[in-house]
Specification:
By secondary structure, this protein is α/β, with parallel strands linked by helices. The chain has helices at about 40-50, 55-65, 85-90, 100-105, 125-130, 145-155, 175-180, 200-205, 220-225, 245-250, 270-280, and strands spanning about 20, 50-55, 70-75, 95, 115-120, 135-140, 160-165, 190, 205-210, 220, 230-235, 255. It is elongated.
Length: about 280
């Protein structure tokens, strides 16, 4: 039950209003229910136009990137830390105990601060390609941790944009956002809905398509990118399976990261960071 002067409290409190909630079934907390149910959240969040930001830094980065806040869920010790945000945003802020937060979300909220944010419409691939010189194209990367790690490296190492095949995981899923430390807000992204024909959109924009693969026929990536001044699109495949035959055929060149000590490949997140450095240096 929420602390209020009237049982008919509006679900949209005025700006800056902090509400204490002690009922895990309070409908105003519905954005935060079942956060550990991956299948449910994967369907629900895009359909309802929301995503969850976890932790002070990530919440602030989401706001800085222009995402509108729907509400915040805070444990007591985070209220003072987030006081400036509470005072600035018109969204309701729900103060809850750690135990109640766990009952609502389904896990122990270590960082003590969650925010439900409103998604923005995704741009069209052509819009991103117009101003970009170095882009990463992901095919079937459906692990949220890998998505977050790749976005973090893309932001840190100067990639201009990310393009995703239709079956890639959601960059705004809570785990992706958390692993990226909010870098998913820093690098613009779009989906290539017609796959792999959509790769022609990239080539038509003047990009050379480089497929990252451990295949021994591939050229070492430092050699392939030495002195490169044109536009480059780096294709990355899913963990384990790598790029599909169709994506490999669509590429202009195959590139690989030279390995030592009998190691044949890297985790796609680690491989992406090495490859990004090679194509952006």
């Amino acid at each position: 039950m929420a602390t209020a002067s009237s049982p008919g409290l509006s679900p949209e409190p005025p700006a800056g209003r902090l509400l204490t909630v002690d009922d895990p079934d309070d409908p105003r907390l519905s954005d935060y229910t079942g956060l550990t149910d991956v299948e449910l959240r994967r369907k629900r969040e895009p359909a309802e136009g929301l995503f969850i930001a976890e932790g002070e830094k990530v919440i602030r980065r989401a706001r800085h990137a222009g995402y509108e806040m729907r509400s915040m869920l805070l444990s007591a010790k985070w209220i003072d830390v987030m006081r400036d945000v509470i005072d600035e945003v018109p969204a309701p802020v729900y103060a809850v105990s750690p135990e109640l937060a766990e009952r609502v979300t389904g896990y122990h909220v270590h960082r003590g601060a969650l925010a439900s944010m409103q998604r923005k419409p995704l741009p069209q691939p052509g819009e991103l390609l117009t101003a970009a010189r170095r882009v990463v194209v992901m095919e079937s990367v459906n692990d949220h941790t890998n998505i977050g790690a790749i976005f973090r490296s893309a932001a840190a190492l100067g990639m201009d944009a990310v393009l995703l095949s239709p079956d890639c995981a959601d960059p705004l899923y809570r785990r992706s956002v958390k692993v990226s430390m909010g870098a998913v807000f820093a690098v613009p992204y779009a989906r290539l809905e017609d796959w792999p024909r959509g790769l022609e959109t990239v080539r038509d924009a003047g990009f050379q398509l480089l497929a990252l693969t451990p295949d021994e026929k591939a050229v070492p990536i430092d050699a392939a990118t030495a002195g490169t001044v044109g536009r480059t699109a780096l294709l990355l495949g899913a963990e384990g399976d790598g790029l599909s035959t169709r994506a490999l055929r669509a590429a202009d060149d195959w590139v690989r990261i030279p390995m030592a000590h009998g190691v044949d490949s890297l985790n796609v997140g680690a491989a992406a960071a090495v490859a990004f450095y090679a194509v952006t240096r």
